[in-house]
Amino acid sequence: MIDINDENIQLIEDEIMLMYDKKPCDYPDYECLLSLRKYMINRNVLKHQEEILPDIIAFNDALREALKEMYDRAHHIWNSIKGKKDFGDEMELTAKCFLSCDYPELHLVQKDDRQDLWYALCDSGWNRLYDLGVAPELVFPRDIDDSFDHMIGMDCPPPNWNEGLDWELTKDLHLISAFHNLFDHMKFAITDFIYVRKFETEINIEIKKKFIK
Questions:
Q1: What is the span of the domain harbouring residue 63?
Q2: Whole-angstrom distance, CA of residue 97 vs CA of residue 199
Q3: Which residue, 71, 132, 169, 192, has fewest beta-carbon neighbours within 10 Å?
Q4: Is the torsion defined by CA of 137, 203, 144, 176 positive or negative?
Q5: 59: left (phi over 0), alpha (psi -120 to 50) or beta
Q6: Is residue 186 part of a domain?
């Protein structure tokens, strides 16, 4: 049975929230708490991967859909602007996708302090790679010719980013690269994100002006 609510993990989470409330927060001294918490939770959870398999699949599907929506929206905005005026290399569009800022309603642990913990976990000061979102940002015009399959890592063999999981159990899941990015490279425990079904997209446009003196 999965245990992600034991006393030792709670002590670490209490310390995380205590340090997060301090202003300014001294990130370098305390980001190791996220790594320790991730290790302890994953060590317990990954012994019972068959229990979380339905949520892994549902999260991967929801994440793929959110990234597809971001990809299509970014192309639509880019083409709409470029169709009105050609800015050449002076215009750049960046698109990022983030987990919802609301604590997952489907998570197995529901306590009054969970939203505060979620804010700390999603803070890019501690979870530094998360500054770009769930995956490397989409940048136009640099990535304008990249297919959606390329963006989510489905154009390389095998199309399944399941490193660190039970290979036999997950061999046919077609997990996208953003799943691997969250699971392997960031400080989220697997149970932090597999219950997320809502995402937030951030699209920014920058027009660089050259001034001649």
A1: 50-207
A2: 7
A3: 169
A4: positive
A5: alpha
A6: yes
Per-residue pLDDT tens digits for 19-40:
887 766 666 667 889 999 999 9
The set of residues, in sequence order, having a beta carbon less than 8 Å from that of 5 and lying 6+ positions away, is 108, 109
Greatest alpha-carbon pair distance for the chain in Å reads: 70
Q: β-strands 199-207, 138-140: how paired? A: unpaired
Query: Which stretch of DSSP H or E encloses residue 92?
Result: strand 91-99
Q: Take residue 50 and report the two structure tokens written for it.
A: 């068959």
Best CA proximity match to 28, nearest among 102, 105, 128, 115: 128
The residue type at 11 = L
Note whether residue 39 is domain-resident.
no
Q: Indicate the pTM of the whole model.
A: 0.91
Evaluate whether residue 161 is within a structural domain.
yes
Q: Is residue 107 part of a domain?
A: yes
